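This part of the workshop introduces the protein records we will be handling. An example says more than a description, so a record of this kind follows:
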Amino acid sequence: MGKTTEELRQLWRAFQCKEHEMVLMRFGPDKIRVAEPTTGAWDALAAVLLAHGYDIRTQDTDSFNCREITNGSGPSLHAFGIALDVNWKTNPYIDHTGKRKVRFSNKPTQEARARDVTMGLADTDMTPEMIADVEAIKTNDGVKVFGWGGGFETVKDCMHFELDLSPAELVVGIDPSTVRGWAALEVSAEAINGTLDTQGLLPDASPRQELLEENYTVIARSGLRLRSSASTAADVVRTLSPGTGVHVLSRDGPWALVDLEGDKQADGFVFFSYLRRANAQVSSQSSFATEVPTALGRDALNLATPEAIAKMFPMTPRGSINANLPFVLAGLRATALTDIPMVLMALSTIRAETEGFRPISEGRSRYNTRFREFDLYEGRRDLGNTEPGDGPRFKGRGYVQLTGRHNYKRISDSIGTNLVADPELANEPSVAGLILAQFLRIKERAIRHALSAHDFVGARRAVNGGSHGLDRFVDAFKRGETALGVIT
């Protein structure tokens, strides 16, 4: 392994035991729960195993598990969503005396190799060639992706695959040329999900499509662009008006492949975050429902008038609220975060981050600058800042102070605006409103869980990673409960 377990724990600590930060994805015939940034890596691992004809069993393959490490101290890497155990019945954990290399079976079939494991003649039913192909998987920057537990000298943990790199190293993506079977898996997934199209409407990067076949409605206020492929660089086929009904055939990351005619034929791709399931009712999962049940089940945006919001911002010029509130509410509408807890969360976050109620750029401080402006952000791989100049280029901006190349890229992919190419767009009010709402949408489960327990520290940490501005956040939230009628 290139990195130690403790190093990986530190690099991925933001995901430790955070089940709400995990995503469910397809892994061969199975589904696994992993940290959201890692899905491309597991796609690559699945491609290699399937290319070797290796049978992945669902009953003894598993991923996220908030537990301690086996025969050790501290949390397992499974608790971070960066480890996967595959077929543990025929790849058992072996604690042997002394040091030795892994023993492979030379039998031609997986079944025969498994019998050798049962008889104690081998440690794994995998093959040297298979493991060599797994260890050959690299990122677009040439960084090795996986470590394998069969490579341990003192024990053998051949079921175990773990990521051996940081989130910042992984964010550049997997180099498909290093992944045996990648192309075949893409074609297989597209064929299974009915997305092969003679007009060229093919997903352009991911083999982890999931079949949905559900009806949705467009909720983008100014219309939603239908594109020829899952990319903001793709041609716009047409713009779908608000309220347009679409049939979602499959998902590809933030994109949805949609059918407009109801004939199960693909018409193009749209951003999934601007769709709402047909006939879905907005509901709240917070404990406020026991206090004021009638206020939380309805759209609360009409309650967020400039007069009401001014009560949450006692030191803020009314003109800033009047000018910017429509953009904030539009972002919440676009992401369907329209109930009182999430509206209060959004507005209180603005109070904590940018009390002036306008999108701003981060100022110079001892936390970001030592010699040159924002030089303390330079080389910060936890922020995805890997190129010279990334520090000042991707400083905090907007209502929520979006910071770091990784976050700019992540939100760009979600809202369909290239913030990486033009970071200053994050201070455009209409874009800043979408950024705030999408950031809250990403953290929604953690936020709702914290608010349901009246845990303002946890809610603030879900967005900020700490408690910066907590006093302003709590003050605004409590003022907002009264202003919006939650407390009378």
Notes: The mean pLDDT is 82.
